[in-house]
Specification:
The complex is a heterodimer of chains A (59) and B (605). Chain A has 59 residues and is an all-alpha fold. Chain A is 36% helix and 0% strand. Chain A is built from 2 helices and no strands. Chain A has helices spanning 23-29, 37-50. In chain B, strand 12 and strand 13 (400-403) form a beta hairpin. Chain B is globular, with a radius of gyration of 26 Å. Chain B folds into 5 domains: 4-108, Glutaredoxin; 129-340, NADH-ubiquinone oxidoreductase 51kDa subunit (Rossmann fold), CATH 3.40.50; 349-432, Ubiquitin-like (UB roll) (Roll); 437-526, NADH-ubiquinone oxidoreductase 51kDa subunit, iron-sulphur binding domain (de novo design (two linked rop proteins)); 538-604, Alpha-Beta Plaits, CATH 3.30.70. The chains are: A mainly alpha (59), B alpha/beta (605). Chain A binds chain B through residues 3-5, 14-16, 19-21, 23-25, 27-28, 46-53, 56-59, and chain B through 1-2, 5, 7, 40, 59-60, 62, 123, 125, 128-131, 133-139, 141-142, 145, 252-255, 258-264.
Chain lengths: 59, 605
């Protein structure tokens, strides 16, 4: 998972044709539709790679 | 993980001063050290301080380097990135700080600023949707999808947001009009046709945070019941257009544009229309005509675009900065937060482009209600070269001149209108004592006269007649009745022109007559231009007592009009002098005087 649009696992269904209502919140806080530490770590890795400092992410 | 983030200003101002060369030199130096992969290098949006560009900010250290050249990269990489030591000589230094300073919080230029619209500029990679999302992006839009369209209009009304493009009409009210207009097809139009000389607020927002504009348009679309938007952007902004195209493509990929967005059944598409640079196309009805492929000329209103706009359909037209404020307002609690900033009648912040004879040229975002004095002296650092402030032109060529006695005027829509100026889109051109106010009025009127579309007689003919009078006055042929004629023509044009361009273009003339009447009278009655700008109305004369005979002026004169032996006072041959001003710029003793034509020197500026 290199970008937020990439799916963290098979449980993520967000695509253009099958959109998820929680997609934006899920990018930064997710996953919100299932609990999975690995999926959560994948999202955090994207954030940590580009976050300039601790104030960078705004939820 | 990167060790550090190297954010180089990739906006047009810094690119013009060489930031791409700095970037290339930095990459080369990182590669020479074999450490390229350890650092993230981004050509980001504008941090605003164009005067000291090219700028590089290093995170997480938060060190602000300025005035960079490609040669500086060797030392910067070796000392800071490899050695962990700050390169002090590349930090900000200026008369407003005692010691070189590291970052925003200690640079006076930033002290009074409040970043709302520009909160992402220079912080994120403008070509990354992920970074926009991390900074809270598209959350307001997601919220807008869950609430009623009229509730969105109501929230925008409650925020007090007024259009940032010029007229200052309530944005929420405008949205509500379009929402309530009948018809299945409606449009959202983003006016990115920024045309005021010296203004680049919208350009920087588009270049630094393009997704904020898309999100603002999406929310507007949801609020008014539209499924299609246009961004009308001048073709002279290629970087802005490139980044908008990237942003649109990313939003499509992420399912934030297109059909059934985020599963809420809302559809929206955005088109970009490149304008050809006509100033009048910033006027909303001319802009709509241009999008439709017609000649860009205004039409009478009513009907207003909210009833009959693009292709005859109800349309909301908002300026770039207005739309960039929308995500901040529509987020949870955003309207109340927004309304806390500013004055009773003018809420939020305003982005201004500082230009002219000011020390810190650039872009600043300040709360509404700040005074001109604070912007010019605290943010702008005062007047260049230690000269005296004379006036500031607020609102571009359709605005007015604010004189010294109004420096403490709060900047808000109503105060500016009372003073004979307008907020406009936010251009502030600062003038010092070397500016001739009559010539300035002539310059701005010549701009609007050239840009007049010619459709209505008052603007087409009236501006030409006014310009003829101003040309006569600055050429030394002014008549005592000219001021009354100018005043009468100006009011007729304001009252009877078809569009905003004609209705506001006499403002520079009216405001300079109001505040600098004595300069007009000097031009007309004494045939004298105290600023030394109107060439027919002054002579240069060398003060024989102060001249040391250094020959600097002799060498500078392009027409050999200055003679004199070394260490002896020099003379100017008035017959040869072209009044180019090269001598006065070079004179180290300040002994070249601006005098009345054919008279002895009695005034020194």
């Amino acid at each position: 998972m290199n970008k937020f649009i990439d799916q963290c696992c098979d449980k993520c269904t967000h695509t253009r044709s099958t959109p998820c209502k929680d997609f934006i919140r899920c990018c930064v806080e997710g996953p919100v539709c299932h609990e999975d530490l690995v999926c959560s770590a994948k999202r955090k890795a994207i954030i940590e790679k580009v976050a300039l400092n601790e104030n960078f992410v705004i939820c | 993980m990167y060790e550090k983030h190297l954010m180089i200003c990739g906006a047009t101002g810094c690119i013009s001063s060489g930031s791409r060369s700095v970037e290339q030199a930095l990459v080369k130096e990182l590669e020479n050290h074999g450490i390229r992969d350890r650092y993230r290098l981004v050509m980001g949006g504008c941090p605003g301080f164009c005067e000291v560009g090219p700028i590089l900010v290093i995170y997480p250290d938060e060190v602000f380097y300025c005035h960079l050249t490609p040669k500086d990269m060797v030392e910067l990489v070796e000392k800071h990135l490899v050695g962990g030591e700050i390169v002090e000589r590349l930090l900000y230094k200026g008369p407003d700080v005692a010691v070189p300073v590291r970052f925003y919080d200690s640079i006076p230029f930033y002290a009074k600023q409040k970043f709302n619209v520009l909160h992402n500029s220079g912080i994120i990679d403008p070509e990354s949707i992920d970074e926009y999302i991390m900074r809270g992006g598209y959350r307001a839009f997601t919220r807008a999808l869950t609430i009623d369209s009229l509730t969105i209009c109501e929230e925008v009304k409650e925020s007090g947001l007024r259009g940032r493009g010029g007229a200052g009409f309530s944005t929420g009210q405008k949205w509500e009009f379009t929402n309530k207009a009948p018809g299945p097809k409606k449009y959202v139009v983003c006016n990115a046709d920024e045309g005021d000389p010296g203004a680049f607020m919208d350009r920087s927002i588009l270049e630094g945070d393009p997704h904020a504009i898309l999100e603002g348009m999406l929310i507007c679309g949801r609020a008014i019941g539209s499924n299609e938007g246009y961004i009308y952007c001048r073709a002279e902004y290629p970087l802005a257009i490139k980044r908008l195209k990237i942003a649109i493509s990313q939003a499509l990929e992420y399912g934030l544009l297109g059909e059934n967005i985020l599963g809420y059944g809302f559809n929206f598409k955005i088109n970009i229309k490149e304008g050809a640079g006509a100033f009048v196309c910033g006027e909303e009805t001319a802009l709509l005509a241009s999008i439709e492929g017609k000649r860009g000329i205004p039409r009478p209103r009513p009907p207003f675009p909210a009833q009959s706009g693009l292709f005859g359909k109800p349309t909301t037209i908002n300026n770039v900065e207005t739309l960039a404020n929308i995500p901040l307002i529509v987020r949870e609690g955003g309207a109340a937060e927004f309304a806390q900033i500013g004055t009773a009648g003018s809420k939020g912040t305003k982005v201004f482009a500082l230009a002219g004879k000011i020390r810190n040229t650039g872009l600043c975002e300040v709360p509404m209600g700040i005074t001109f004095r604070e912007i010019i002296y605290d943010v702008g650092g005062g007047i260049k070269g230690g000269r005296e402030f004379k006036a500031v032109q607020a609102g571009g060529p359709s605005g007015g001149c604010i004189p010294t006695e109004l420096l403490d005027l709060p900047i808000d829509y109503d105060s500016l209108n009372k003073a004979g100026a307008i907020m406009g889109s936010g251009g502030l051109v600062v003038m010092d004592e070397s500016t001739c106010m009559v010539d300035l009025a002539r310059y701005f009127l010549s701009f609007t006269q050239k840009e007049s579309c010619g459709k209505c007689t008052p603007c087409r003919e009236g501006t030409m007649r006014m310009l003829e009078i101003l040309n006569r006055i600055t050429g030394g042929f002014g008549n005592p009745e000219d001021l009354d004629t100018l005043d009468s023509l100006a009011h007729s044009i304001k009252d009877s022109s078809l569009c905003g361009l004609g209705q506001t273009c006499p403002n520079p003339v009216l405001s300079t007559i109001r505040y600098f009447r004595h300069e007009y009278e000097e031009h007309i009655e004494e045939k004298y231009c105290r600023a030394g700008v109107c060439k027919a109305l002054f002579s240069y004369k060398i003060d024989q007592e102060r001249c040391t005979g250094c020959r600097a002026c002799v060498k500078a004169c392009p027409v050999d009009a200055i003679t004199g032996e070394k260490k002896e006072p020099h003379e100017i041959d008035q017959g040869r002098c072209t009044h180019c001003g090269s001598c006065i710029e070079k004179c180290r003793q300040d002994c070249i005087l601006i005098t009345r034509v054919g008279r002895e020197a009695d005034v020194s500026n």
